[in-house]
Amino acid sequence: MAKAKYVYIFGNKKADGDGSMKALLGGKGANLAEMTRIGLPVPPGFTITTEVCTYYYANKRTYPKELQAQVEAGVANMEKILGKKFGDLNKPLLVAVRSGARDSMPGMMDTILNLGLNDQTVIALEKASGNPRFAWDCYRRFIQMYGDVVMGVQKRPGEDHEPFEIVIDQLKEELFPGQHHVEDTKIDAEGLKELVNRFKALVKDRTGKAFPNNPWDQLKGAVGAVFGSWMNDRAMVYRRKYGIPSEWGTAVNVQAMVFGNTGQNSGSGVAFTRDPASGEKVFYGEFLMNAQGEDVVAGVRTPEPVALLKNEQPKAFAELEKVRKTLESHFKDMQDFEFTIEDGQLFMLQTRNGKRTGLAAVRIAVEMVKEKLITWETAITRVPAEQLDQVLAPVFDRAAVKAAKVIAKGLPAGPGAASGRIYFNADRAVLAAEAKEKVLLVRVETSPEDLRGMIAAEGILTARGGVSSHAALVARQMGKVCVCGASALHVDYANKILIVDGQEFKEGDYLSIDGTLGEVYAGELKTAASEIVQVLVEKSLDAKDSATFRNFKQLMDWCAKATKLLVRTNADSPDQTANAIAFGASGIGLCRTEHMFFEGDRIDAMREMILAENTEDRKKALAKLLPYQREDFIGIFKELKGLPATIRFLDPPLHEFLPHEGSLIRDLSEKIGVTPEKIAKRVAELHEFNPMLGHRGCRLGIAYPEISEMQARAVFEAAVEVQKKGIKVKPEIMIPLVGFPKELQLQIDVVNRVAQEVAKEKKTKLNYLVGTMIEIPRAALVADDIAKDAQFFSFGTNDLTQTTLGMSRDDSGSFLPKYGELEIIKKNPFASIDQTGVGRLMQMAVELGRKTRPDIKLGICGEHGGDPDSVKFCHRIGLNYVSCSPFRVPVARLAAAQAALSEAKAAKTAPKKKKK
Ligand code: PEP
Ligand code: MG
């Protein structure tokens, strides 16, 4: 048997792996190999595979026995290439150790630099570089990073500052008494030596252990810390949010150090091949001279825009521009990369597909097609469906902005508009958001421990840090509005106040931020619709020529070409219908008719109907409701202009329509002339212990067929009315909560009888379908029988989920989060279809239904219809359409197109069956 390979080398023109091996080498490792292969200057190193991580957790945190020898060979390879030696007293090899999961993952151990330094090798580095300050700066950084992430010297609960930072500040105070904001670069070699001693003392004091001197022990500790961090709390929070399975594991990259901190000819930077916030094709990013990479992202010093590198290092900048082009033409996507310049020479440390806002994703995808870098099909796959929501996100009302005063400016790190009450601490932000407050998280800078607060907040505002700071990266990915590096802000954590130019804001005060412009305003500003919503919904022509709208439209047009699964909408009014159609809906998939009974006077007629003591009185009350309902349908049919409309008959239990409190009962009594006692008695009669499983759905129409009769009449009379105007009408009448074929048959009889009556009265023909919801498990189990009568099925996955899982859709909040944490369920089943459980029932119903009636129309109308993963699932099981709320229509259309493309791709790559 071939020996297991756990270590893959890269750099210096030779790589064992390549860019396609992300599952095994992690994103970082695979791309370091790929960059090596295309001739970019990558310092040599090796990747320990994700399989080792899996082994580590499956075997009580131990390693495969072959690993040590392979790691030693990897180190030997670097030594050979560079002519240095690990732990050597003349030419010591120093390495960086970085984690690297398949997708980059904030929250995990990130980087340890300068590993291999100790009390002896630091002297060697001092001699070899002729630069004592540099050597001791490297050493103190190493102790700081290693002490923090490997040995656990971290902030304790209640502490506001990192312990190492406190030691640095103390030393600075001693060296530069009374001077504030002295940069670390001002500390000389002697000062740094002292810092090393104090750091070591801190480590000993906090951990009881001495700082390890042996480079091999250091390496072992660092590798263990990377694997250990895969299961830390922050990484798990992140994985849960993004649905990343814990089985994936992380890889570890060990790479020879290059130094951006050797002096003014060196530097480190992070850059994007295009602007990740707007998508514009400009070289974007930032750098710091005489700094190591961590300084750029840590927000300790504010970096300079990458364009200015041209003045400082023209040769390296020209090379970097070339690299930018090479990366895009090779990876054919926007890249986010890290580089270091060591004494004027450029090195590449990482590249990956850059995270971007929804706005940027759409623009980059569309422009790359124009540039012939990618096809339109690829463009569709480049925009995460969920992110499309962001381009529909609100902006500030223009008039409100004009009237408001900008109190501070920062970097526009996450576009959109957000207003909220400010909180300076993640926990308090979470509590406030749970109490339904709109929250802005305001921090000097953020770190992964703020993640929960960032998730809870509408927007994030920081005083320090650049466009690649933690706050900016995470906000962009989450689609949160973010302004960072607003240096005029003075955040006083201790007193919970924010001071801006002398003005004080307490925790809980309102601020507003514009993440597209990077502006901060006092107070709560009114928000306005996005340009796309302005054009499509508000019918304003102003924004029609905006690039944002044109790009969006282009993408949607391509989706229409690719898609098989149609997208309908859940709408109960003409306005909602019009909005959904503007977003490209191909009809209504669910019109919840009960919603029409809540407006104005209608509720009174509805209540009269419920309170009626006999059929005669009930019919009288229903006759009052008929014109309302007919008018609504007329409005909807007109907006649909011939597109189909699935109209569901009354579904909720009747008690939902009645008042329960004494004063409201008295009000109603006066209005409709029924005594309060009678009303209270009826309310009591209708009380159910479990209304969701009680007298609702088709059970209402069966007990009171006159309700269904009225609804059918309203639909057909409206149809006749609209048809007369030359507009086609395609009603699809849907019976809810069916479990027994007979239930459906009884309701179909009513519908057909009324249709005949109306057709006769109006001397016209009516085209319609009658079908059912599949929303309780029995319906799925006997779908073949039900399909004998049903002309269509629509999966009501809200009820189907609650009845299949036996979990109330309204009361699961108390335990579902725990289920997520324990990974009992991967995603909230009420948001994303439980594919292995509920999904299996759906698949079965599809097969049974089609067996009886091959052309049966199949759709879904539960909330899942707007969830991209569920949309893709619906495509796979062969539904004809999904239906979702109007503003989710673009997201669902994109997901549907992506599903069709991935199916086509799979068909192309599947092995062809041999001809006999
Ligand atoms: C459903 O159950 O999925 C559904 C669409 O119906 P409702 O949410 O109105 O119960
Ligand atoms: Mg339902």
TrEMBL record:
MF terms in GO: ATP binding; kinase activity; metal ion binding; pyruvate, phosphate dikinase activity
PROSITE patterns: PEP_ENZYMES_2, PEP_ENZYMES_PHOS_SITE
Cofactor(s) required for function per UniProt: Mg(2+)
Residue ranges constituting the PEP-utilising enzyme C-terminal domain according to the UniProt record: 550-899
Domain Pyruvate phosphate dikinase AMP/ATP-binding residues, every copy: 23-59, 65-313, 317-372
Binding site for Mg(2+): 775, 799
Source species, domain of life: Bacteria
Keywords: ATP-binding, Kinase, Magnesium, Metal-binding, Nucleotide-binding, Pyruvate, Transferase
Active site per the UniProt annotation: 470 (tele-phosphohistidine intermediate), 861 (proton donor)
InterPro entries: ATP_grasp_subdomain_1 (IPR013815), PEP-util_enz_mobile_dom (IPR008279), PEP_util_AS (IPR018274), PEP_util_C (IPR000121), PEP_util_CS (IPR023151), Phosphohistidine_dom_sf (IPR036637), PPDK_AMP/ATP-bd (IPR002192), Pyruvate_phosphate_dikinase (IPR010121)
The enzyme's E.C. designation: 2.7.9.1
Family of the protein in this entry: Belongs to the PEP-utilizing enzyme family.
Protein name: Pyruvate, phosphate dikinase
Species of the source: Pedosphaera parvula (strain Ellin514)
